[in-house]
Amino acid sequence: MGKLSLRLLQLIHRNAKSKQPCLVNNLHYASRYTQQDAGFSLLELIAVMVIIGILSAIAAPGWAAFVNRQRVNKANDAVLAALQEAQREAKNKKLSYSVSFRKNSTTQEVAIYSTKKSDGSNLPFAEISTWKPLGADVGANSDRFLLGANLSGENTANTVVPLVSYTLSASTKITFDYMGTLPTANFGTPIAPSTEPPGLKIVVAVPSSTNSTLASSVKRCVIVKTLLGSMITAKDSPSCD
Questions:
Q1: Which of 18, 141, 157, 204 lies most in the core, judged by the most C-beta atoms within 10 Å?
Q2: How many C-beta atoms lie closer than 10 Å to residue 210's C-beta?
Q3: Interval 57-106: pLDDT, tens
Q4: Residue 71 · residue 138 · CB < 8 Å
Q5: 49-235 sits in which CATH class?
Q6: What angle do CA 169, 206, 218 make, to 5 degrees?
Q7: Across-strand partners of 122?
């Protein structure tokens, strides 16, 4: 029985050795076949590039709109923060505080300052020294958006349609008294169908694609609504018109 098992093992070993060259040849052939078929043809590469181009053309407008919305959101947050800071300073220091806006070359700027000088006279617009680019604190580039207001004077809303002008002047100024309120403010005349005054509006807008001096439909705004100085934020038309 032991001799039979040994003989059987020798036969299996001999048979395996006889098939080994065949196995090596098969592996060599498979490797050569794989190398010949590696990579892409020129036609395949062109097809992939065309598909990528089509997808990019579809996605680009949506991405640009998203970036514009993020930009004006940040700028509007900066406007709200400036107004809230002036109101807070007025309450804390028991002095009237103002917020002014202006366009300096291509940069939109904001200033928060004590309304009166040490001698009790009003601080002239030309002597304001606290100007800074609007939105610099939150990473908003102020030369990428338009800034407007519906103010015809200090704490006075313009009643002429359209309400918002993107030409800033010394009148673009909101002042809080020592209690953080606006006791003499004029919030404008209601415009039908609304029955509420428009309020004091500071508006941030994305420039129009056809004319960079005009606002597009993408807008954000801060509105001072009451004599107590309450504020709300709004977006687009008609709230920010």
A1: 204
A2: 7
A3: 776 666 677 777 888 899 999 999 999 999 999 999 999 999 999 987 77
A4: no
A5: alpha beta
A6: 115
A7: 116
User: Which one-letter DSSP state was computed for residue 194?
Assistant: -
CA angle 136, 72, 235 (to 5 degrees): 140
CA nearest 224: which of 174, 190, 177, 184?
A: 174
Q: Give which of 199, 200, 239 is closest to 219, Cα–Cα.
A: 239
Pairwise CA distance, residues 129 & 114, whole Å: 11
- Phi/psi of residue 194, each to 5°? -70, 150
Tokens of 132: 């800074």
- pTM higher than 0.70: yes
Tokens of 230: 């309450």
C-alpha atoms less than 13 angstroms from C-alpha of 108 in its C-beta half-sphere: 28
The Cα 120–Cα 183 span in angstroms is 19
Eight-class DSSP state of 40: -
Check residue 164 and give its pLDDT. Answer: 75
The C-alpha angle 42, 45, 50, rounded to 5 degrees, equals 125
Query: Residue 132 in 3-state DSSP?
Result: strand
Before 238, cis peptide (omega within 30)?
A: yes
Instruction: Tell how many helices (H) and how many strands (E) occur in the chain.
Output: 2, 10
Which candidate, 214, 198, 211, places its Cα nearest to that of 161? 198
Whether a cis peptide bond, with omega within 30° of 0, leads into 190 is no
In a 13 Å sphere around the CA of 235, the CA atoms on its Cβ side amount to: 10
Q: What is the DSSP string of 9-24?
A: HHHHHHHHHHHHHHHH
